[in-house]
Design brief:
64 residues, mainly alpha
Length: 64
């Protein structure tokens, strides 16, 4: 699994993720390349979700 990490693309913006998903759906990927693309999209999506939630805080919620 460690060797996959070095070759997995990293997407930072939601536009890059959208393009990657469209490419993933349109491509005829197999084997390790299929897994690499899936993993890159998954990781980027989870990162985006975490970034969006981090800024969505209610003022004073720590006082409850």
């Amino acid at each position: 699994m460690q060797e996959l990490q070095g070759t997995v693309p990293v997407f930072k913006t939601s536009q890059e993720i959208d393009r990657a998903v469209r490419h993933y759906q349109a491509s005829d990927l197999h084997g390790v390349e299929l897994f690499r693309q899936w993993l890159a999209i998954r990781n980027a999506s989870l990162e985006q979700e975490g970034a969006e939630l981090a800024g969505d805080r209610v003022p004073g919620d720590a006082s409850y």
